[in-house]
Structure formats: C-alpha cells, structure tokens
Amino acid sequence: MLVYVIRRLGQAALVLAVMATLVFIAVYAVGDPVAILASPQADQQEMEAITRRLGLDRPLYEQYALFVWNALHGDLGRSFVYNEPALTLILNRLPATLELALTALLISIFVGIPLGLYAGLKPQSLGGHSIMAGSILGFSLPNFWQGLMLVLLFSVMLGWFPAGGRGTTRDLFGVPVSFLTLDGLAHLILPALNLALYKMALVIRLTRAGTREVMLQDYIRFARAKGLSQTRVIGVHVLKNILIPVVTVLGLELGSMIAFAVVTETVFAYPGIGKLLIDSIGRLDRPVIVAYLMLTVVMFVIINLVVDLIYAAIDPRVRLEEAKA
Amino acid sequence: MSDPVLSVRDLVVEFSSREGVLTAVNGVSFDVAAGEVLGLVGESGSGKSVTGLAVLGLIDPPGRIASGSIRLKGEELTCKSEPELRRLRGRDIAMIFQDPMTTLNPVLRVDTQMIEAIRAHEKVSERAARDRAREALARVGIPSPEERLVSYPHQFSGGMRQRVAIAIALLHRPAVLVADEPTTALDVTIQAQILSEVQQLAAESGTALVWITHDLSVVAGLADRVAVMYAGRIVEEGRVADVLERPAHPYTNGLIGSVPSRNRRGEPLAQIPGMTPSLANLPTGCAFAPRCPRADAACTTPPGVTRAGDARAFRCFHPLIPVEAAA
C-alpha cells in the first residue's frame, strides 16, 4: 500500500518535470511578452529595460536553468503582469474555483445518480426516455451556450439569481468561501449548475448503463429470491456495483472541472483560476501559465490517488498492490 | 402421495417480443410433497428455468404468468402482490442458481449477504443473525466459518460459493427449494459432494426439492420423481426408476441414449437429430414430431396426456411402452 503510494508519487514527479519543461519552452516559442506588456509609446530603451528586468535577455537554457533552480527551492517565479509570485496569485483564486467545482460535483452526483437509476430501472417509461433525451442535450449543447441560456432564463427573465461575479464571502478556516452567505450561494448556483450539466449527463448515462447491466445479474435475482425488499436490492446490491465506474469517471472529471472551469468562469465573470489562466495566456505571462499547469498536474495525481483508494474501498476485488504489475 | 406442498397447475408463462407472444411454459402441471425431490429435466430453452422462476414470482417483464395456478402449502401465489410474494421468498420458498460465480454479490461480504437474508424475514438482532449465519455456514461444510463470514465471494472457490448460496437458501428452512442446475458449473467431485449435502439438508428440514437440470445422471442419483420438459411442456413424468428404465416418450428415450456412458466405445455417439424448435415457430402438433423417428400423421395434432399406472404420465401418440399399462 505504502509502496504503491510512493510509486505513484514518483511517477507524478516525472510527469511534472516533463510537463514543466515542455510548457516552458512552448511559451517561450510563442512570442515575446514584452511586446504585450510595454505600453505602445515605449521606446527601444524602455523595452530593453523591461526585458532585462524580467530576465528575458538571457539565452533560453539560462532562463530554464534558473527556473529549475528556483522551482526546486519552491519558487515558481513572479508574474510578469502582476509582479507577484505566480503561486500566490493562483492560490488566492483557487478557493473560488474549488468551491465552484465541488458544488458542481455534488450537483452531478446527487441529481445524476438518482435520475440514472430511474432511467435504468424503467427504461421504457416516459420518465426514462425524457431523462435520456435531456442527458443528450447536456452532452451535446456547447457549455458556453448552456451558460448563456442559464443567465438569460434565471437572471434576465426570471431574475432569480445574479448573472455573474462571486458575491459575499465569509472566511472558513481562513479560506474565503461563498456558500455560507445567502448572497454568495445565489452567485454560486448558476455557474455551478452550468459546470455540472455535462458531468450530470455523463453520470446519468453511466448510472443507467450500469443499472441495466447489473439488474440482469444472477446476484440481483438471488437477492430478490432471498426476499429482500426492492429498496434494499437497489440501494445496496445495485448501487454499490454501479458506483465503481461512476467514481472513476467523476474523479477524472473533478480534476478537469477544477483545472478547466475556464468557459464557465468566463461566461459568469467568476473570479477563479480558469479566468486567470485565460488572461495569462493572452498576455504570455509565462510564470503563471507554467505554475498553473504544474499545479494542475499535482492536483490530477492526488485526485487519481484518492480515486484508487475509494475504488479499493468499494470493490474488494481491487488489490492496490496488483496495480504495480 | 401425501398432500403436495407445492402444486403447479396448467402454468402458462408468456414473453412478449418483437416476433409476437412467445409461450415459454405451456400448461405445465406438477406436484411436490414435503421431503420429496422432483427432477425437472430438459434441454436449454425447454422452459425449465422459467418454470422455476415463475414459482418464485420472479418473472420480469416482458414476461408474465398468463394463466394457471401455483399453490404453496395450499396458498395461491399467482394472485399475490409483490410485497406478499417478497415475504414468502426466502422464507417459505427459496431458489439457488446455476453459476456460483455470479449468484453472490461480488462487492458485499458474505456476512452482509447472509444477515440481510435473515433479517429480511425475522426481527432478530445483528448479533443473533450473525450467530445463525455462522451455524448455517458450518452446516454446509465450510471450514472455519467465523473467518469465512468476513470474506468476500471472490475469496471462495466455486464449490464453496455454491455452498454459501445453499446455506443462504436454507436459512429459513423453506418448504420448497428450487435448484436451477446448481451443480452444472462445478467439478464432478464437488458436484457429488454438494448433491449429497443438499439431499441430506433437505431431508433434515423436510424441504421439498425441485431440481432443474439437463443431466440425467444427477436425476438418477438424486430425484424421487422426474418430469421431462420439451418446448415448454412436460412430455413425460413418473418415478425416476420407471422413466429412466422404460421411457414412454421418444424424446426421453433420445435423452437417455445421448448420455455418453451409455454408448459403446468406438461407435459414434448417439444423438437426437435436429435442434430444439424456436418458441416463435413451434409445430402445431407435437413439438417433438419433426425430430421424432416414430412420428406420423397423427402427430400433427397436439397429443393429450396419457396416464399410465401410478404417477406415470406422458404426451405421445406412439409411446415406447405398451399402452395397456394405462389401465
């Protein structure tokens, strides 16, 4: 078990190093941030001063060596634009995105699984067909369009929720969160719903497919032959079996929801890391981009590890040691 | 014969499909008395498993019990609601299935699956249920039952899993146990052990057994009476010794002839020509007629039941035993 975790972390370090190198070089190749940062009136001298200050006058290998050296000491560089440490910049905005992604995850689980179960148990019913049709919409309509429609319906026409921003926050263990205030919650619902729609559709389909398959298994028939109630058969025997693929997929999706909530955050002007990334790419703010992606890799590794652990908890046949092979 | 504990009369089970309504079980009748073992024999698709499921009320849509009666200890089951049936299942009538690898839920521990079965019918404490589960495991010959209780199904061998399933099925000492080919997937040696154990356990608790199988040698060793099914009908029924030694129906005769040990070394194995007919496309008369060496023009109408002596019956115009015995 411990060996397994250490092994996984070792692999993660390797991925991290390769990814950082690739991104570093790629952003260098894309263009010169000085041209974007300096004011249009700046003359040659001012431009060179900025270049020197940012350390961009040195050859690539020197820049890279410096980056690696600093990174090993826990310093991922300062943002070209904000002149703040890149990591601080990201971590300051991370709670907003985490809150958004976790809310979306909860919505997709607590709405998606019951709907999927229903559709799986009654595939021929009107309800079952409607759920499946709805999930196709969740899949296929572009995310930004869904976001715009949510704003149009719930903010503009009905006026139930605000159209954008984060709302009032309150500190929970020193982290500003918005779900503790009514205003914050109102601001959170639409973006979270927008982010959740696609995952919900995914969960519905996975749950339905799983349910239909599991219902035909002999052990379900045997459970019924034992005289168990329908609630027990579905709530324990069916649910525990279909959770395995759902957990796997949701684990991966949680990572992508946190890392790439870009579209939703842009549509709802939500001050999370997704919006920071988009802005940074636009300004070729290399330290922020690299730090952001490194953080993303770390996050994915951790989430995958947790998923594996949950996996072992719900499926006794999974032996973590075997994964070494 | 004493009063039957399970009595099935003219049972018809239909499945609606794209090709129309398929009759999987067509007018099946049989009785089983307490402590008796009835072998239900037939090829795949003959309707024997569906009959077993129907007895427990486990036929799911698109299938349904179209007509007929199923009486358990004199109580009619076909008109009972699902909650009423649920209370009977596992307590008065239990079932075990063919593949022990798939009858236990892979993600639940054995104790969970046993305790829930006990507590589905009796209000007992977790601890008392656990004690009973342990005793039940010991009774079916599982070594160190206390440790095995906290194991998962994948940690058992096939034979052990089937023992666990049998232990679960017999937890409430049901009046009837329907066993749907429970030994087919096992090694011969394990099969023999399990057969004798089930026989003994059933005899101890006076449980009537309906043993569904395609294996005549199992029936020969285990059952008191045998009913042979073909295309949804019971074509022959009687005491095991009578039926196996003097089969009346050509199909039964063909089945017996197909047992490999009956054939002589070096000669081609005997077989019944042709295949089981599709349910969507049954002949109007005797369903076996197209494969039958004795069929003639009479066989284009459905044969009725001929009774021959004590507890012997068959559906055939040209039986292999003298019809005078019918008197």
TrEMBL record, chain A:
Membrane topology recorded in Swiss-Prot or TrEMBL: Multi-pass membrane protein
Query: ABC transmembrane type-1 domain location, by residue?
Result: 94-311
Location in the cell reads: Cell membrane
Residue spans crossing the bilayer: 12-31, 100-121, 142-161, 173-198, 242-269, 289-314
Transmembrane helix as UniProt keyword: yes
Sorted alphabetically, which PROSITE patterns does this protein's record hold?
A: ABC_TM1
Q: Name one GO cellular component term.
A: plasma membrane
Q: Which UniProt keywords apply?
A: Cell membrane, Membrane, Transmembrane, Transmembrane helix, Transport
Query: InterPro entries in the record, alphabetically?
Result: BPD_transp_1_N, MetI-like, MetI-like_sf
Query: Pfam families, from UniProt?
Result: BPD_transp_1, BPD_transp_1_N
Tell me, which GO biological process terms does this entry list? transmembrane transport
Keyword Transferase (UniProt): no
Q: Which family does it belong to?
A: Belongs to the binding-protein-dependent transport system permease family.
Q: What is this protein called?
A: Peptide/nickel transport system permease protein
Automatic annotation (TrEMBL), chain B:
Q: Which UniProt keywords apply?
A: ATP-binding, Cell membrane, Membrane, Nucleotide-binding, Transport
An example GO biological process term is: transmembrane transport
Asked if the Swiss-Prot or TrEMBL record annotates the protein with the keyword Cell membrane, the reply is: yes
An example of a Pfam family matching this protein is oligo_HPY
Source organism, top-level taxon: Bacteria
What Gene3D superfamilies does the record point to?
Answer: P-loop containing nucleotide triphosphate hydrolases
Gene Ontology cellular-component terms for this entry are: plasma membrane
Q: What is this protein called?
A: Peptide/nickel transport system ATP-binding protein
